[in-house]
Amino acid sequence: MDFSSYFGELNSLYASGVATEHSYRPALERLFKGIDPGLKVVNEPQRLTDVGAPDFSFHRGDVLIGNAEAKIIGADLRNLKNREKDQRDRYLKALPNLIYTDGLEFLFYRDARLVTDVRIGRLNGAVHPDPDRFGVLGTALKDFAAQTPITITKPEVQARLMAGKAALIKDILARSLIADADRKTDLAGQYQAFRDQLIHDISIADFAGMYAETIAYGNPAYTAPPIAPPTSSRNGRSTA
Q1: For residue 105, what are the β-bridge partners?
Q2: Max Cα separation, the chain?
Q3: How do strand 105-110 and strand 113-119 relate by DSSP bridges?
Q4: In this predicted model, which residue has the larger pLDDT, 27 or 61?
Q5: Domain residue spans in the chain?
Q6: What is the spatial distance between Cα 32 and Cα 49, in angstroms, rounded to a whole number?
Q7: Does domain 3-145 bear CATH number 1.20.1070?
Q8: DSSP secondary structure, 22-48, as one string
């Protein structure tokens, strides 16, 4: 991992005074790609919508082994507020191998527990690296990349993980529908069709929950009522 180039990029961006959270992503992506040549790092992975899912995904072959969420440099990762706190809580429930970082501090979560915290620099008028911590971060990243998908042997573990993923999907879908005020997406079309044909007053939250449960479990929260069999008249003809 080339920490010298990494901090050069961070300082240049920070000094510009106009860098956003997204501006730092390419530097982080290059740092992450230095973990292991066999690891595929995807910045802005394909997601259900443009309003959800972590910023990075990490793959070994076709297997997803972890995710990372990147915040603006200098963010207080331990005291996130409001929407960002809610987002982190959802990610922790659904994603067993997760990094939260502002580019200087890296929090490693495994099964919703904080297992490692490494800070490699600080802000004080500029970005100041702490070279003594580079090796610690390198070791933590390699350990993160060495994780493999867990083997589920207990029903309660499976239930907890599936519930977390369903909650994450529900939130992503609901936010997408709220953001799509003009109802231009396929998802919005499905929502409108559901309202027109089945449950006329279903809310966005309830529809998103039904959709998420269908994806996660194949068991939607709302099902059509059973159709009563036709009755017969005295002459044997159906009255349906």
Answers
A1: 119
A2: 92
A3: antiparallel
A4: 27
A5: 3-145, 155-217
A6: 24
A7: no
A8: GGGHHHHHHHHHTS-TT-EEEES---S
